[in-house]
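Lecture 7 notes: from sequence to structure.
We start with the chain below.
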Amino acid sequence: MDQIKGAGGLPVLFLMKCLLFSYILTGALLALLALILYKAELDEKVVAVAMIVIYVGATLFAGFMAGKKIQNKKFLWGLLEGCAYFGILALISLIAGTEGAGAGHSFLTTFVLCGAGGMLGGMLG
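Predicted structure tokens for the same chain:
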């Protein structure tokens, strides 16, 4: 079995793999967005919406994978994946010192959207 069960029987290794795949997906989609931005000179609002869609899509993917593998309480596993994704994203933003790291409106909105995307993916999984 490829799962390492941590404290309380959590499949830690599998959940980390889901997060890794979601960040690979995020990186690929953000690179594609950067290419489109370079070629099409998109408006700043369009780019902001596209980034949120990418984050929600990546958390939906991670939640879906977690829900597919772990059949018990799938929505909670998806929510966990979404919150973990956001936590890592926020930590990276804080370290990089970007303005999105503050406790402002977009910070809370992104947290809710990542959690909801993961939860929806878990329910669909």
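Points to note: The chain has one domain: 11-124. Residues 11-124 form one domain.
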